[in-house]
Amino acid sequence: MRKWNVSGWILRVLKVFRMNADELKAFQDRLIERRRELIDEGDFLIEPSKRDAVAKLDEDEAPHTENAQVIASRRNRERAREIAGIEKALRRIELEPDEYGLCQECDEEIGQKRLELMPWVEFCVSCQSKIDDPQKNYRRRHAADYL
């Protein structure tokens, strides 16, 4: 459930408009184009370790194949995550055009440069950093800490 920041809402009401229709349409077009590119690329191939069920695994090639599988799998997950973000942004533009470009956490505007680079983002830099690193005061443990 979304938390509403009253001060952000008041600021939004006081600003008659933030993003004009042409800017919104430009972001929508960029999102649609990026989604098309990602879908056209297709999944990255994950090569099997063995080509034949009865063939012996090549011990020299196995680590390289496993590494390639991990990389391809990670790229496929990131691609799927980006497509999902694009879909959410397109829905937001369609259903709540006034909400597009506002942080989903604090209701402040997402920076123009950030939106230009990643038009599917939902959070401003400040809120995204809190989400990415919730333990900001985390410090690395040393062996002496356990003595």
Give structural notes.
With 147 residues, the chain is mainly alpha-helical. The chain has one domain (6-146): Up-down Bundle (Four Helix Bundle (Hemerythrin (Met), subunit A)). Helices cover 53% and strands 0% of the residues. It is built from 5 helices and no strands. It has helices at residues 6-14, 21-41, 62-95, 112-117, 125-132. Helix 2 (21-41) runs antiparallel to helix 3. The longest helix is centred in the middle third of the chain and has 34 residues, at 62-95. Residues 13-17 have low confidence and may be disordered.
Rg calc: 22 Å
Q: What is the CATH architecture term?
A: Up-down Bundle
For the terminal residues, how far apart are their CA atoms? 44 Å
Order of helices and strands: HHHHH
Estimate percent helicity: 40-55%
What is the typical, i.e. mean, pLDDT? 79
The number of distinct β-strands equals 0
Largest sheet: none
Structural class: mainly alpha
| Morphology | flat
* Tally of domains: 1
Pfam families: zf-dskA_traR
GO molecular function: zinc ion binding
Organism: Microvenator marinus
Protein name: TraR/DksA family transcriptional regulator
Question: How is this structure best summarized?
Answer:
By secondary structure, the chain is mostly helical. The chain is built from 5 helices and no strands. The longest helix has 34 residues.
Which structural traits does this protein have?
single chain, 147 residues, mainly alpha, Four Helix Bundle (Hemerythrin (Met), subunit A), zinc-finger, metal-binding, zinc, TraR/DksA family transcriptional regulator
